[in-house]
Design a protein that fits this description.
Blueprint: E1 10-19, E2 24-30, E3 35-40, E4 43-48, E5 50-52, E6 55-62, E7 70-77, E8 80-83, E9 91-94, E10 101-107, H1 117-123, H2 127-135, E11 146-149, H3 161-172, H4 178-182, H5 199-210, H6 213-221, E12 224-226, H7 241-248, H8 253-272, H9 275-280, H10 282-289, H11 293-309, E13 318-322, E14 325-330, H12 348-359, E15 365-370, H13 378-390, H14 399-410, H15 420-435, E16 444-449, E17 455-462, E18 473-478, H16 488-496, H17 502-512, E19 520-529, E20 533-540, E21 543-554, H18 560-564, E22 592-602
Parallel strand pairs: 10-11, 11-12, 14-15, 15-16, 16-18
Antiparallel strand pairs: 1-2, 2-6, 3-4, 3-7, 5-6, 7-8, 7-9, 10-20, 13-14, 17-18, 17-19, 20-21, 21-22
Helix pairs in contact: 2-6, 5-8, 8-11, 10-11, 13-14, 13-17
């Protein structure tokens, strides 16, 4: 790490993580130990930062906020003003509005690397930056009430050029876990010397992703809910029993797991928790009460390793209620059961928790956030079912099973349809919710998905006789990526997967190996789109709509600026950079990024 400045400053954040009618939590990383204070109206709360691996954090719980109010807040460190950086751009806490309107923006898969013109041409506009620009010119009551971030907030296995250079320098100096450095030259998936591995290196990803000024302001003002996916640890994470057997045998695996889970717990998971759950979290309490950073590192490391080997150690899934809208965020990656005889996308304990979360409240809308889409594009759904059937790991593994495992990892056949027991259970749960036994059925069940680097809308029809006459409408809304475009060859596969005769042929392929569908059918109604973007759900009473927007770069000189980024030696690092602002790039140093509306669709009758 660089030597911290003598005066503490905010490195990441402040991030507004949780808000209800009277309470809010704000997460922050600071450069050195200090007392962090937040003032919001008449409320003031202070916490001493706590340290781990040379980094310093605080989570502050504001109480007794005024319902239905918007309150600017300020952050001081040891009494010195630290936030906002620009008084013309204040951060605010908005407790729920007095009416029953709820707005939730969502998406997944965001590469957080720089906003230079070359990067914007290569991986496109950043949907979060574009959303922040849009909010600057939008009435505040039309802002999102929360951001749902559905996985791959960081890419540990595909670091940016800048971080790759830092990793190389650190490896040359002998930095990082010894087994990671020793993997250089091993080839294939076994060489992780150029990937993120420990807590320090993971912190680089979070700093890169969340220190852009626009993203920083957005996350300081809009509460966020986050769930993990494979790139938070490594591509194909927990795809299969065979994958896990090979990876856990690598000498660097424990270091990778410790860095991934420890950093995820601190940077993402703690902020997901409601104040009561945060205060009751045993690991967080132990970190706060530890006598030294070394003791905290021991506690966090032991927890991270146990979270990988014992599923009972950690539950990453959580709920968040917004009036009569319930959001259930599902971990479908870390909690997998990979037993070849009973593969499940969630282990039995977490699945039972999911059932209780979905069936336990009387709501107008049930929103289920899963990093992985449940209802894949038709042909891909059938191929995943076929693949699971032929790839089952067993001692006498035939050639077909080995080929199936290769296909699974090569083209990412690892969604709900590749865990057929869980897919069938999910359809059964949705049917129970729509049936409304013993309570009113919700107006909608809205399945949110990411991961697949394209976006589309689907209507889902539950065909069980038990839901005849149910008022519940079921949709799947897939938004990916925020910023990480799909390669063109895979785009073609996605387009073909919904066009006949491909779905019919793949259905027969799956049926030939015994795959049978439960009581459900679905169809794509809108899309497929491949641009970076964001979707926003708007729910008023029992009505729900979705707004689809995609992000675009407004290049200077009518597009000439984009052309310059292609020419060697002429690509500028910025546009008229006048010096860096503290905490990130100059706002004037990048082309403007905007959201353009693609469509608005009604989701309920």
């Amino acid at each position: 790490m660089n030597q911290p400045p003598s005066t503490p400053e905010i490195l990441v954040g402040p991030m507004l993580r949780y808000v209800d009618s009277t309470d809010a939590t704000v997460w922050v990383e600071v450069s050195s130990p200090c007392r962090v204070t937040i003032r919001a109206g008449e409320q003031e709360v202070s916490e001493q930062s706590w340290g781990v691996h040379g980094h310093h954090f605080a989570i502050l719980h504001l109480r007794d906020l005024q319902p239905g109010m918007e309150t600017p807040y300020e952050v001081t460190l040891d009494g010195a003003p630290a936030w906002p950086l620009d008084p013309r751009r204040p951060s605010v806490i908005r407790t729920p509005r007095p009416d029953d309107t709820v707005r939730l923006s969502f998406g997944s898969c965001r590469r957080g690397e720089s906003q230079t013109p070359v990067a914007l041409r290569r991986i496109g506009a950043d949907a979060l930056v574009a959303l922040a620009h849009q909010m600057a010119h939008t009435p505040h009551d039309e802002w999102p009430d929360a951001m749902l971030m559905l996985g791959d907030q960081v890419y540990a296995d595909i670091p940016s050029r800048q971080i790759t250079e830092r990793l190389a320098a650190r490896r040359r100096a002998g930095g990082g876990p010894r087994a990671v450095c020793a993997s250089a030259g091993d080839g294939g998936d076994r060489d992780v010397s150029g990937e993120i591995c420990d807590f320090e290196e993971y912190s680089w990803l979070y700093h890169e992703s969340w220190r852009d000024p626009d993203v920083r302001w957005l996350l300081s003002t809009v509460p966020s809910c986050m769930i993990l996916d494979d790139h938070d640890l490594r591509d194909d994470w927990n795809s299969s029993f065979a994958w896990r057997r090979e990876m856990t045998a690598q000498p660097w695996w424990r270091d990778r797991v410790e860095g991934a889970f420890a950093s995820y717990f601190v940077y993402q998971h703690l902020g997901n928790l409601a104040p009561r759950d945060l205060e009751g979290n045993e690991v967080y309490r132990a970190l706060r009460s530890a006598d030294s950073d070394a003791e905290r590192e021991r506690i966090l490391g032991e927890f991270a390793l146990s979270a990988d080997t014992d599923r009972r150690t950690a539950q990453w899934s959580f709920t968040r209620d917004f009036g009569r809208v319930r959001v259930v965020m599902l971990d479908v990656r870390a909690s997998r059961r990979l037993d070849p005889e009973d593969r499940r996308v969630m282990d039995p304990e977490e699945w039972e928790w999911t059932r209780e979360a979905c069936l336990g409240g009387e709501v107008d809308h049930l929103v289920i956030g899963s990093s992985l889409p449940a209802f894949m594009l038709p042909a891909l759904h059938h191929v995943e079912g076929w693949n699971e059937a032929v790839s089952r790991d067993r001692p006498d593994k035939p050639l077909s099973a080995r080929a199936g495992e290769w296909a699974r990892l090569t083209v990412d056949l690892e969604h709900w349809a590749a865990f057929r027991n869980s897919f069938d259970d999910l359809v059964g749960l949705l049917t129970e919710v729509a049936e409304g036994r013993g309570r009113p059925a919700p107006a909608s069940i809205l399945m949110l998905g990411g991961d697949v680097h394209c976006s589309y809308l689907e209507e889902v029809e539950l065909t069980s006789p038990r839901v005849i006459g149910s008022p519940t409408r079921v949709h799947q809304l897939v938004m990916s990526p925020f910023r990480n475009p799909l390669q063109k060859s895979i785009r073609l596969v996605n387009l073909l997967s919904r066009r006949e005769p491909v779905p019919s042929l793949t259905r027969r392929l799956a049926e030939a190996v015994g795959v049978r569908e439960p009581e459900v059918r679905w169809k794509v109604t809108d899309g497929i789109w491949f641009d970076n973007g964001v979707m926003t759900l708007v729910m008023r009473g029992r009505r729900a709509t979705v707004k689809v927007e995609h992000a675009h770069v407004e290049w200077p000189a009518g597009g000439l600026g984009r052309a310059l980024t292609v020419l060697p030696g002429l690509a500028p690092d910025s546009w008229g950079r006048r010096g860096r602002r503290r905490g990130g790039d100059d706002l004037d140093a990048k082309p403007r990024q905007v959201l353009r509306r693609t469509l608005i669709r009604e989701l309920t009758d």
